[in-house]
Structure formats: structure tokens, C-alpha cells
Amino acid sequence: MDKLRAGIVGFGGMGQRHYRAYQGTGCEVVAICEFVLERVVGYLPDFPRNRIYSHYADLLRNEKLDMLSVVSNGPTHAEITAAAVQAGIGRVFCEKPVATNLKEAERLAETIRHYGARVAVNHLRRWSGAYRRIKALIREGVIGELRHIYFQCGSTGLGNFVIHAFDLMRFLSDSEAGWAIGMLDKTGTPNPRGLQFRDPAGYGMVVFRNGLRCFVDSSEDTGIPYLYVLAGTYGRIVIDELAGSWQVFTRPPEMRAEKLTRYGTPLAPVPFGGGVYDIVELTHNGLVELVGDGPLSCTVEDGIRSLEIVMAFHESEARGNARVELPLSGAARERVVEIA
Which domains, and CATH codes, for the chain? Predict the structure, then answer.
């Protein structure tokens, strides 16, 4: 069976991870678009120079591709993905965020439906076996009913990083955000990728339609990695991905009928087996799924719903940190935010 012909738009650190992730997917990367030529040549010195493009339009015009990874900066994701679909590429793997405003994201979704393409958004925890096991434990009631999620990570932008936490909240709860209160961090720490990049950090609260309460803090006055704490009616899950620490605790079965107000009720550890957080591996899993014909774990509609929570934080900030109802309406759906 011939390999599918794949291309990559954007060949910075994440684009290079996509290149590695394509190994073993049944695809061959035959074309790359990157305006900094040295990024490609330095990483792949033997890659054909005539297959390296400085503009995505030239790549789409000159290459016959079956699949494309869109790994450019956030403001161009929707534009490039739509162009790829319109050019006849049947499978596209788009990095998050899908867009920098909701109207543009919705136009992209309409284009995808019109052309019948398969488009997945790389909220990569959805392809994690460990997180799928966590979701199964929640569904089985091991920690009772999921009531609270806390996410903390230092100095991370809402649109590029915290959006992953928002998507994970949706994934684990099988619910959608009902309202949010958000604040943007005003510390003003320069983006390590360069002064031209801007994606504000922030903190706030999201309440889901099923009553789940979620709190996030990505403020720029801390510099520590991701931490998730999930609390149920009688159990807790604590996840530190980089440390490889996945801890599950619950009340012993004989104590689950005790009142929730009983202070000091002990929690016992639940064997879990841990999990590995590897960006290349999880991206690979998403690519394999996209190559197939089955349901997609993260569709463009999922990408839009997670983006909408980011937009709600920006909207809340613009309204003096007021409570904002979701789905957003009116001018809030037109607002363009900085996610680059």
C-alpha cells in the first residue's frame, strides 16, 4: 500500500515534533512550508530543497497532498486550514487554537462541512491512554461525582496553553461551560519566543452546565509546571505530568456512605499505574486516528468550544471582570484576541 503524502506548514519546535510524529503512521512528509529556511535545513539537511516553501499557498498549488499538519502561529491556523480543505486535501491536523475569534472559527467549520474533509485539532490529551483511564475512573464513580478541577501552571498564555486545560475539563466532564469570570495577567513578562508574540496569561473560574467548578491560574509571577487536581464527592486525583505523578485517592468503600461534612475521613490510594506525557507520542496517536476513517477524538467543533472559554476570559476582562455567560453572543463572537 502506498504511503499517504503529507505536508507540514510551520517548522519550529512543534512542527519538528509533528515531523517525528508522522513516523509509523503510513504517511510520508514530502513537503514543508517554513519562511525561516534554516529551521528545515538545519533539522533535515537532506530534505529536497525544491520541496521547501516559504508560503503555504505555493505548497498547496505545487504539491498533491493527502494530509497536512498546520503548525503555524495561531492567527493563521483557520486561514491555512480552510485553504488546504478548499485545495482538496482530505485530512488536516490543525494545531490549537483553531482561530483567534469565534466567527472565523465558525466559518472554518462551515468550510470543512461543505468539502467533507476530516479535520482534527491537536488537543493532544484526548489521545492519552492515561487521561482516558482517568475519565473511565470518573465514569465508574471511583471518586464519586466530579465536582471541582483546579489547574495551575506558571507563566502560560490562555490561548496556547491554558486552552488545553479547558479542553481537558470538557473531555473529562462530558459537559460544556456555562459561565466564566476571568482576569488577564498584567505583569507584562516578555514572551520567550520574541517580542512579536503575545498571549496573555490569566486566572479565573469556569462553571460548567453540570455544576462542575473549575479554577485556573497561569499567572506570570510563578514558573512551575502543569498541575491538575480533580475533586469528587469522596475522592481526589492529582496529576503532575512532567514528574510522571498520577495519584488517585478515594474513601474506603465502607466509609462512602458517611456524610460529606464528616471532617477527617481518610482517603486510600487507588492503584493507577501512572502515565507518560510525551508530545510526539500523543501527536502520533492523533495522526494515526486521522489517517483512519473512524470518529475523531477532537473535532474542529471541540476546538471551537475550548477556544470559546479563552474568549470568555478576555470578554470578562473587557467588562471589568464580570461574569460572562456561555455561549458568547453578539460582539463577543467577533472579538479578535492576541494568541500568537
Answer: 4-124+281-299 (3.40.50.720), 126-276 (3.30.360.10)
